[in-house]
Amino acid sequence: MSEFLSNLFPTESSIPKEHNVGSYLEQREYLINGKLRKWPGTLNFVSSPVFIKDGNSYKQKVIGSTPLLTKHEALDALTAAVDAYDLGQGEWPTMSVMDRIRHVEIFLGKMKEKRAEVVKLLMWEIGKPLKDSEKEFDRTCDYIVDTIRALKELDRVSSKLSEDQGFMAQIRRVPLGVALCMGPFNYPLNETFTTLIPALIMGNTVVFKPAKFGVLLIHPLLEAFRESFPAGVINIIYGRGRDTVGALMETGKIDVFAFIGTNKGANDLKKLHPKPHRLKAILGLDAKNPGIILPDADLDNAVSECVLGSLSFNGQRCTALKILFVHRTVVDEFNKKFTAEMAKLKIGMPWEAGVNITPLPEPGKTDYLNDLVQDAKEKGAKVMNDMGGNHTYSFFYPALLYPVNSSMNVYHEEQFGPIVPVVAYDDLEEAIQYVVNSNFGQQVSIFGTDSKKISRMIDAFANQVGRINLNTQSQRGPDSFPFNGRKDSAEGTLSVSDALRVFSIRTLVAAKATDNNKKIIGNIINNKESVFLSADYIM
């Protein structure tokens, strides 16, 4: 089997020209205070999960390098962001909403010009299939458009004056301050921009550190960021988190912390802030989303949704289904259908048409996944599908594990990879208690047709998770829906409209509704003397 997987790796000459990453990209640029600086120091090599076959040997392809900045450069970036915000008096936070929108629209236009470069780097850096890489880029552009539309609507509502109990007031949303934005490696463009763009467009200034993998793909966008925003509004740094991000948090000058990663990482960084009560956190963290299959479920639909939900992009999604509870009366049939569908998944290189399973970008990931499989096997589970769990280099063939129980590590740990643990249950309370007692609370998927049983679970899970899916896989979209979680899975809510709110705070101008005050406010509005107190209506 290892030979089968090894032979999936290409020779240099067999890589299609249009998909080849091209020459080695040595990136030394980073963006601080509106200028692209050149880093003269040590670089971090960027290795692709794709290995290149040369005769009987295989070598991981190194596609480029990025700056290994130190805390000094990170603090320079923070100083630039702090100065640009200027305690809320800077050009960007006091700029009109329409003018900030124009800057973001300029950036979007420049970003679209870099689509081919970014998509190619998504494939090569994290092994994301071509179709999914294209989708991630296009969805990110759509998200920016939707964010602009939502902000216009929010501003239209805010342009009105309210009267109540003898007072009149105008309520608007204003920025929070300096934001630190950090995204995940599995969606290094889309998930990152779902915090970065709302933070910017609401008037915050930003220090942005790209994900640990999927970092080179920001390079084509550096110039677009520089040209689209005033100096110091967006600052982009690179390097090891312990050398850069920790130093930023210790200053106490970060007002907003937008982070998508592990709850441990978030906790460690938040603890460094000297005034945690002043730190607004927007966090997308770990998840162990269960799928629960009732005895009367449409098994064909359940299997189809669970295969997609657990194995799309190798299961490397926080929203992936990471454990399946199947009623004992149907578990054998479910496993049979599931393994049949698994066998149809195409494994190969990211650029190959119709590919489903691709190389994994994290070093040591295949060893970790293999340890989970071996632990489960030692405690009574079996690999139900042919070739399941076989691995070589960065490839790991998907494995369906059954029967899984609470003594196994895979029952508790978020595998974040192509392992599908199946638990047989007799009483629905077993599945309910798993969710109730879990440290995670992002989503759950329920498959069945019995409305009474489904309603029982809805009521049991409503206070446990952020989203309950009926007869469909767990997922983030549509972006207009709230995306959140409970317990160790999230802090704050993200959707197109929610993101605008979490990166801002409501402020109001209020006065007693006297004739004199009405005259003053009327003069301010009619003469356009204030950016904040305004009746301008954005079209």
Q: What does this protein structure show overall?
A:
The protein has 539 residues and is an alpha/beta fold. It folds into 2 domains: 2-284, Aldehyde Dehydrogenase, Chain A, domain 1 (3-Layer(aba) Sandwich), CATH 3.40.605.10; 289-485, Aldehyde Dehydrogenase, Chain A, domain 2, CATH 3.40.309. It is built from 17 helices and 25 strands. Strands 15-18-19-14-13-21-22 form a 7-stranded mixed sheet, sandwiched between helices. It has a 6-stranded mixed sheet with strand order 10-9-8-11-12-24, sandwiched between helices. A 3-stranded mixed sheet has the order 1-5-4. A hairpin with a 2-residue loop joins β16 and β17. α2 (71-85) packs parallel to α8 (241-250). The termini are far apart.
Q: Report the span from N to C terminus.
A: 60 Å
Structural class: alpha/beta
Q: Uncertain regions: pLDDT < 50 for 5+ in a row? A: none
Number of domain modules: 2
CATH-defined topology of the largest domain: Aldehyde Dehydrogenase, Chain A, domain 1
Radius of gyration: 25 Å
CATH class of the largest domain: Alpha Beta
- The counted number of beta strands is 25
Which band does the percent of strand residues land in?
A: 15-25%
Mean of pLDDT: 96
Tell me what the CATH architecture of the largest domain is. Answer: 3-Layer(aba) Sandwich
> At the fourth CATH level, what is the homologous superfamily of the largest domain?
Aldehyde Dehydrogenase, Chain A, domain 1
Query: What is the share of helical residues?
Result: 25-40%
Query: In order across it, which strands form the biggest sheet?
Result: 15-18-19-14-13-21-22
Largest sheet: 7 strands, mixed
**What would you call the shape?**
globular
Counted by DSSP, the helix tally is: 17
